[in-house]
Amino acid sequence: MGNRQEELETTVLLQSYDIVAISETWWDESYDWSVAIEGYKLFRRDRQGRRGRSVALYVKEWIESEEMSLKNSQEEVESLWVGIRDRGNKGNLVVGVFYRPPDQGVPTDEAFLLQLQKASRSKALVLLGDFNHPDICWKSNTVSCRQSRRFLECLDDNFLRQEIDSPTRGDVTLDLIVTNASELIRDVKIGGSLGCSNHALVEFIVIRDTC
């Protein structure tokens, strides 16, 4: 893990990202000292006994942020939600990161969709992650799997849009940007990778109202 973490830290500091979302981490308590990045607050959701199913968010320390709770303790959804306070005090930006294992069952899918429904009520929502719905064609909004269809229905029912239509792993689009404020999303770039990851990096800008 050392080389990949060093590459992550170098990339984050070089690009000076305000927020960095990571899905499918391999962290546990033994990594507490080694995953910190100077100048960033780290939010993380580790899954005990399930390596590779965790999620994390780095947020610059000067940004006012706090973790939000959108699920009960019994849910096994691999998600993390953080509220970002607007400097103009006009409402929070909610940033979420989600990992959906390929073998995730219907009950866990439905629990996540309930979380997404709650999060969609925020003024501005940006949800990132590896959703593992390879059967969805985002250009035509067609699917072949019932669970993927439920996901698309949830997006439609809650006025959410998905902003990526290019492949992020091989020839499929697994990593998504879901938002209720498409006008805030700019300059989406897909390319490169971190370490030996077979997923492309996704980079974009969120325009916040400064008036």
TrEMBL record:
<dbReference type="GO" id="GO:0003824">
    <property type="term" value="F:catalytic activity"/>
</dbReference>
<dbReference type="GO" id="GO:0031012">
    <property type="term" value="C:extracellular matrix"/>
</dbReference>
<dbReference type="InterPro" id="IPR036691">
    <property type="entry name" value="Endo/exonu/phosph_ase_sf"/>
</dbReference>
<feature type="domain" description="Endonuclease/exonuclease/phosphatase">
    <location>
        <begin position="13"/>
        <end position="199"/>
    </location>
</feature>
<dbReference type="GO" id="GO:0007508">
    <property type="term" value="P:larval heart development"/>
</dbReference>
<protein>
    <submittedName>
        <fullName>Mitochondrial fission process protein 1</fullName>
    </submittedName>
</protein>
<dbReference type="Pfam" id="PF03372">
    <property type="entry name" value="Exo_endo_phos"/>
</dbReference>
<dbReference type="InterPro" id="IPR005135">
    <property type="entry name" value="Endo/exonuclease/phosphatase"/>
</dbReference>
<dbReference type="GO" id="GO:0061343">
    <property type="term" value="P:cell adhesion involved in heart morphogenesis"/>
</dbReference>
